Amino acid sequence: MTILPELPEVETVVQGLKDLIKGREIKTVKVREEKIIGYPEIKDEFIHDVSNKKIINLDRRGKCILINLEKKKTMVIHLRMTGKLLVKESKLPYEKHTHVIFILDNDMDLRFNNVRKFGRIYLVDTGDWKKAGGLKNLGPEPLTDDFTLDCFRAQFKNRRARIKSLLLDQSFIAGLGNIYTDEALYMACINPGRKANTLSQKEIERLYKCICEVLRSGIKYGGTTFSDYVNALGKEGNFQRKLVVYQQQGKKCPDCGEEIVKEKIAGRSTHYCPQCQK
DNA sequence: CGAGGTACCTGACAGC
DNA sequence: TGCTGTCAGGTACCTC
C-alpha cells in the first residue's frame, strides 16, 4: 500500500495520529537511519531534545506534519515519497524500512517508515521554521481563511511559467503534488501547459475554486491510496476511486469522451483531457 | 524568473 | 529465470 502524501493525505495522517498520540510523552528515540534527521545535524542532540517530552498537539502546514512538544519545540516531519507514520506496540518487530522510532509512555511506538529514505524529520524551536526544510518559503495555505481569491491572484504577479509547474511549486501554493494538480487543472478546464500569464481572471477564479474543491474532496475521502497488493491491510483512503485524469490515461473523459493522455510537462508526468482543457 | 538537468532511493515492471 | 533498464515521486541544488 502506497500513499503519495499531498495535502489531503497528510491531513488524514495528522487527524488519525491526533487520537492516538496527543497528550502522550515521548520517552526516548531510536534513530536507525541518520540521514532521516534533517536538524539538528548531530543525531544525539536530536535524541536528547526529543526525549522525555510531552506531545502537546499535532498540526499540518502544506505537506509537513507538525508535532508540537513541550518547551516550545516542534518536530517537523516531511514524508516526501512513500513515508509513513505508524503507531505500533513497542513489542512488535520493526519493519524493513523503519528508520526512526519514538518510544511512547504507554508501550506504544510512533514509527517512521520510509522505503525510499527521502523523508526528513527536523526538530526546531517552535516558529523557527528556517531550519526546517520544507517549511521555509512555503506559499499560502489552501483551505484557510487567509487563502482568498485575491491572495491566489496576487501569486500570479510576474509569473510566466507553465501553470502545472507553478502549482507544484510549494512557494506558489502549499500542499499540491502531482495528483491534485492534475485533477484541479482538469476540473478547471485549463491545459497544464498554459503559461500562467495567459490565464484570464475568470480562469484564475475557476482554478482557485477547483483547487479548494479537489482538496476538500480528497480529505473527505481520506486521501488517495494505491494498493500494491490485492489484499492490502491497513487503513486506506478512497480518493483513488474519484480520480478522473491522474493515471487514467487511455480512458475516456467523462465529459467529452475524448481519450485522457499522459505526457511530460514541466518535467513531470501529466495527465489531462486534450479536448476539455484548453 | 524560468527551464532543464542531477541527485537522492527503492521497488515494480517491461523487455530481452 | 535472471538480468538490465526505465520509471515513479518531492525537494534541493545547480547552470544557463
Please provide a written account of the structure.
The chain has 278 residues and is an alpha+beta fold. 23% of the residues lie in helices and 26% in strands. The structure holds a DNA duplex (16 and 16 nucleotides).
Q: Helices and strands in order, then pairings?
A:
Blueprint: E1 2-3, H1 7-21, E2 25-31, E3 37-39, H2 43-50, E4 53-61, E5 64-69, E6 73-78, E7 83-89, E8 98-104, E9 108-114, E10 120-125, H3 149-154, H4 163-168, H5 178-187, H6 201-220, E11 225-226, E12 261-265, E13 268-272
Parallel strand pairs: 3-10
Antiparallel strand pairs: 1-11, 2-4, 2-8, 4-5, 5-6, 6-10, 7-9, 8-9, 12-13
The structure holds a DNA duplex (16 and 16 nucleotides).
Task: Tag the structure with descriptive keywords.
278 residues; alpha+beta; 9-stranded mixed β-sheet; two-stranded antiparallel ribbon; 6 helices; 13 strands; 26% strand; globular; DNA-binding
Q: What summary fits the major beta sheet?
A: 9 strands, mixed
The low-confidence runs, each spanning 5 or more residues with pLDDT under 50, are 228-234
Number of E-type strands: 13
Distance between the termini: 35 Å
Compute the average pLDDT. Answer: 92
Helix-strand sequence: EHEEHEEEEEEEHHHHEEE
Which outline best applies?
A: globular
Structural class computed from helices and strand pairing = alpha+beta
Helix content: 10-25%
Oligomer state equals single chain
Number of helices: 6
Which percent range describes the beta-strand content?
Answer: 25-35%
Structure summary:
With 278 residues, this protein is of the alpha+beta class.
